[in-house]
Amino acid sequence: MKGQSYNPKGIRSAFALLTQPALAVPHLAVDNIARIDFRSLKSKGIKAICFDKDNTLTAPYSLETHSPFQESWKECLNEFGHNQVVIVSNSAGSNNDVDFREATEIEKSLKVKVLRHEEKKPGGTQDLLNHFPSLHPSQIAVIGDRLLTDIVYGNKMGAFTILTTKIITLKGDNKFAIPLRKFEIHSLLPFLKFMRISPIDHFLSGKAAEFIKK
Predict the structure, then answer these.
(1) Cα–Cα distance for residue pair 185/165, rounded to 1 Å
(2) Distance separating alpha carbons of residues 12 and 175, to the nearest angstrom
(3) What are the tens digits of pLDDT across the range 74-100?
(4) Residue 84: partners with Cβ closer than 8 Å, 6 or more residues away
(5) Cα–Cα distance between 62 and 56 in angstroms, integer?
(6) Which of 1, 68, 80, 208 is the right S-S partner for 84, CB 3.0 to 4.6 Å?
């Protein structure tokens, strides 16, 4: 089954920001994953990478890495290894994915694990921590295109969070995600910057600029 159902946990996370706005502030924001220096991330202490999939790594519901990102994807896998890279999607691997067929197809194509999980992001953080039992949460980087799901998800567990701000395509995208993402990028993120809300503390907080490719 392809598609994401309505995600009330994602909506509720917006209200949680009234008391914890820093949860929605990424440690680093880049146009797309091609701007991320994965070698530098690893050298500074990150040991595993968690990717969102749709409009972060691939076009919505595609099984292939977006072509301009293929070299960066290879670099990530070479630096961290296939076992230390995982995809956490609110469609593939979720309870909407009948018999986890979509997750299995993605694993065959991209050669990394798609996490099986019952709770949609920003919930379900324990599933990711269970997947990397030997790591401290701060040693994981979470990369995604959504503030209220991917970034809140990563910040809740204490990971290093990276927001990708330019989507791949709206074609085939989830109908709930389109207006929410637009609000997040064009309204919420500028507001948080205007209010000078700092990211959740992380040992790499002051070094974020080092992870952007020149």
Answers:
(1) 7
(2) 18
(3) 999 999 999 999 999 999 999 999 999
(4) 47, 48, 49, 132
(5) 11
(6) 80
CA angle (37, 40, 42) in 5-degree steps: 110
DSSP string, 107-132: HHHH-SEE---SSPTTS-HHHHHHHS
- The DSSP call for residue 212 is B
On whether the pTM is more than 0.85, the answer is yes
Distance in angstroms (rounded) separating the CA atoms of residues 20 and 34: 30
CA max distance for the chain: 45
Please name every residue paired with 161 in a beta bridge, in sequence order, or none if there are none.
Answer: 142
Identify the burial level of 129 via C-beta atoms within 10 angstroms of its C-beta, where 0-12 means exposed, 13-18 middle and 19 or more buried: middle
SS3 string of 61-108? CCCCCCHHHHHHHHHHHHHHCHHHEEECCCCCCCCCCHHHHHHHHHHH
Query: Which residue's entry shows tokens 């919420």?
Result: 188
Asked if 28 and 189 touch (Cβ cutoff 8 Å), the reply is: no
Task: Quote the CA–CA distance of 84 and 41 in Å, as a whole number.
Answer: 13
Tokens of 25: 């502030």
Phi/psi for 27 (5° steps) reads -70, -30
CB count within 10 Å of CB 126 equals 11
Of 41, 103, 112, nearest to 82 by C-alpha is 112
Q: CA 105, CA 98: separation in Å to the nearest integer? A: 12
**Short-list 147, 99, 98, 159, CA closest to 121:** 147
